[in-house]
Design a protein that fits this description.
This is GPW/gp25 family protein. It holds the Pfam family GPW_gp25. By secondary structure, this protein is an alpha+beta fold. The chain is built from two helices and six strands, in the order ββααββββ. A four-stranded antiparallel beta sheet has the order 3-4-5-6, with helices on one face. Strands 1-2 form a two-stranded antiparallel ribbon. The radius of gyration is 16 Å and the shape is globular.
Length: 135
């Protein structure tokens, strides 16, 4: 039996049952993390603090301080909004100086299953584009 169950996004209707399709457990957690990353803080009127503040890093020069602040921001948002995360390790890959892309790698386990999951996200900090990498 599923511990966590939620709607599959984008929302889809099951052709056989006519019900909205759902996902469970670790797949739901992974989807929730992607939604957190896809939402800028203050974007949602009803829950203004939901999401991340990754947009505040736009047009910044990548320094060790930049990487440290981005890592804290990412981990803080995930811990705040996804209660099923047990352990989390975030890696920020970027070259120092004026560059346009940063890769965020999140490795985590949940309290649902001990299997380690990985999400990779590429952020173009000069063009306001965010891409999830298939893993």
């Amino acid at each position: 039996m599923a511990i966590v169950k939620g709607w599959k996004f984008p929302i889809q209707v099951d052709k056989n049952t006519g019900k909205i399709m759902t996902i469970e457990d670790n797949e739901n957690v992974k989807q929730d993390i992607k939604i957190i990353f896809s939402t800028q803080k203050f974007e949602r009127k009803t829950v203004p603090n939901f999401g991340t503040d990754l947009m505040s890093y736009m047009f910044e020069i990548v320094t060790p301080n930049f990487v440290s602040l981005m890592k804290k921001s990412v981990e803080g948002s995930i811990k705040l909004w996804e209660k099923h995360i047990k352990n989390i390790n975030t890696t920020i890959l970027a070259s120092p100086g004026v560059i346009s892309k940063v890769e965020v790698i999140i490795e985590y386990t949940t309290n649902i299953s001990p299997v380690q999951e990985i999400i990779k996200k590429e952020i173009d900090i000069h063009e306001n584009k965010r891409y999830f990498t298939k893993n």
